[in-house]
Amino acid sequence: MSAVSLGDLARTFMLRRQNVALKADAQRLSTEVITGLAADTRRKVGGDLAVLNSMDSSLALLAARSSITTETAMTASAMQTALAQMDGVASGLSLDLLSLTPGGSSTTIDQLGEQAEDAFRSAVSALNTQVGDRSIFGGTRPQAAAVMDADALLGLLDTVAAGAASAADVQTAIGNWFDSPAGYAGLAYGGGDVLAPVTVGSGKKVTLGVTANDPALRETLKGLAMAAMLNRGALAGASADRAELAQIAGKVLVQGHGERVDLAARLGRTEARIEQAASAAAAEATALKIARKDLLGIDEYEAASRLQATQSQLETLYSLTARLSRLSLTDYL
Fold first, then answer.
1. 251: how many CB neighbours lie within 10 A of its CB?
2. Alpha-carbon span 137 to 131, nearest angstrom
3. In the prediction, which pLDDT does 201 show?
4. DSSP state of 184
5. Whole-angstrom Cα distance, residue 327 to residue 317?
6. Domain over 60-288 is classified CATH 2.60.40.10
7. How crowded is residue 290: how many other Cβ atoms within 10 Å of its Cβ?
8. Which residue, 31, 47, 49, 51, is CA-closest to 39?
């Protein structure tokens, strides 16, 4: 039988083709060993990709909802923190205001006025809380501050209360301004309407229906503003009227406590629904990933053995290529 030989060029192409094929096998087997999944999914499922595509679509939808749910949960948590801050300063101040006796000293009243203005500023800051670059109490206008700057708002209130001759006059002026659509809602509130419901799960929606224009929050600001007027020159020199105003502001804040608690409770129920939806989505995603692993899973031990064999073949091919490249006619002459 005559021997069949290969020319140098043909041998080079043959070795190159084998090198490329072995490298591709090594890459594929490496991926399979690392992931535990078949690299050629079409071949693994016998060409029927319907089930796999359905799983991947469901996982993609769950991932998108997870992002929305996480953002919604963060916003709800920030709202709860802000509400707790507002209730804390309002409740603490109300006790101090109501403890003031009708014959309280001017110094004590002045100190309560300073405390009230600080509490008012703290409440405005809480209402202007942002998550990322979104104002959480701004409703459909999250890009704007929910409430105007505290200094500007106090300046407006100074004008509103100007000319008041009694504690009842201050109460009426401040109260009417906060209740009027042309007052707080039209001038100080910078947000929009309540947000639409957000989908956080299959058939599950939640609403973060709290804005800085909520009646409970507006009532709290109203009581704080009345007390803050004690530090803004209202009823100057009339100690009895100033003490009466402190009592009125304290009662407004106490009466608003129940509304603030109800608001926090409502938000807490929303947080619970968000958490339930997140847990259900996580369980569904886990089940889908397990099913996908069962569908595309491989014998990792077998893949590792084949990878080792392929690497040995590559090493042999490199050695053979190096030896052939050193062959020379002069070695046989």
1. 16
2. 10
3. 82
4. I
5. 16
6. no
7. 11
8. 31
